[in-house]
UniProtKB/TrEMBL annotation, chain A:
GO terms for cellular component: plasma membrane. GO terms for molecular function: fluoride channel activity; metal ion binding. It is found in: Cell membrane. Na(+) binds at residues 87, 90. Keywords: Cell membrane, Ion channel, Ion transport, Membrane, Metal-binding, Sodium, Transmembrane, Transmembrane helix, Transport. Its main location: membrane. Fluoride-specific ion channel. Important for reducing fluoride concentration in the cell, thus reducing its toxicity. InterPro entries: FluC. It is a multi-pass membrane protein. It holds the Pfam family CRCB. Belongs to the fluoride channel Fluc/FEX (TC 1.A.43) family. This is Fluoride-specific ion channel FluC. The gene is fluC. The keyword Membrane applies.
From TrEMBL, chain B:
It comes from Arthrobacter sunyaminii. The keyword DNA-binding does not apply. Na(+) binds at residues 76, 79. One of its GO terms (cellular component) is plasma membrane. Fluoride-specific ion channel. Important for reducing fluoride concentration in the cell, thus reducing its toxicity. The chain crosses the membrane at residues 6-23, 35-56, 68-89, 101-123. GO terms for biological process: cellular detoxification of fluoride. The keyword Metal-binding applies. This is Fluoride-specific ion channel FluC.
């Protein structure tokens, strides 16, 4: 199978971008979770990280879809910053396990609120990321069209 | 945490992200259903294993360093919240509310159940 027909997930360059982004994402997550203390018995660093990452991914994907389709920059940015960094930065297994530990510690109310609030606020953050990227790019793309018109 | 453990955590995180990327691509290429199950399968399996590892760590069967590298690093890089959230929002925007409920709430409930089972088994060993 040559490089041209090989799917993205089997190309070494794509794998390397995801590896680098994922490593930096995981390191950033650990750095932040060491810096942010627990709120009582509830670990709040991971939900904050997940919500921030959900916002960033929404912003990134929306911004990238507006890039020039002919260049590979968009696809590479998605791999490095999206699949790699945001994917490695955010975590679902910690969300699920921290919730399970809250249940185990006899705090079912906190467990349910912790899990549901993360998912709902996370979805709102993604939505906001998409909306802001869309608004910013609409504004910045209008003058560019004017310039092109002037040039012709 | 020593710098060496932190570096191993980062490398394990990168490796976890690569495993997610390849598995995700493989599942999407070989599944015929309309709903994208890849992220659900990845997050539920990662939650089960992290629950198990956490159970082992609570009972001191596994050292904290191992738990940090494999749990926080590899499984943290393998599972992803941001993609799950993005897919849920895209399904809502397309008006596919049933599918968005699976991507948002069912994935959460099944992942937590998997983590509870993993935690229980790990702590009972």
């Amino acid at each position: 199978m040559n490089t041209a027909t090989r799917p993205s997930y089997l190309r070494w360059a794509a794998i390397a971008l995801v590896f680098v982004g994922g490593g930096f994402g995981a390191a950033s997550r650990e750095g932040l979770s060491l810096a942010i203390p627990n709120l009582g018995e509830v670990p709040i660093a991971i939900p904050i990280i997940n919500v921030v990452g959900a916002f960033l991914l929404g912003y990134l994907y929306e911004a990238v879809t507006r890039l020039d389709k002919a260049r590979p920059t968009g696809a590479n940015l998605k791999l490095l910053l999206g699949t790699g960094f945001c994917g490695g930065f955010t975590t679902y297994s910690s969300l699920a396990t921290d919730t399970a530990v809250l249940f185990r510690d006899g705090l079912p109310g906190s467990a349910v609120i912790y899990a549901l609030a993360t998912v709902i606020i996370g979805a709102c953050a993604t939505w906001a990321g998409i909306a802001i990227a869309s608004a910013v790019n609409n504004r910045s793309s209008s003058p560019r069209k004017d310039e092109q018109e002037d040039a012709t | 945490m020593t710098p060496g453990i932190f570096l191993m955590l980062a490398l394990a995180g990168g490796l976890g992200a690569v495993v997610r990327f390849i598995l995700d691509g493989f599942i999407r290429a070989h599944s015929k259903t309309r709903f994208a199950w890849a992220t659900t399968i990845i997050n539920v399996s990662g939650s089960l294993v992290l629950g198990f590892l956490t159970g082992l760590t609570i009972e001191h069967f596994v050292s904290t360093d191992v738990s940090i590298v494999i749990g926080t690093g590899f499984l943290g890089g393998y599972t992803t919240f941001s993609t799950a959230s993005y897919e849920t929002v895209q399904l809502i925007k397309k008006g596919r509310y049933g599918a968005s409920f699976i991507s948002g709430i069912v994935m959460l409930v099944v992942s937590v159940a998997a983590a509870v089972i993993g935690l229980w088994v790990g702590a009972e060993l």
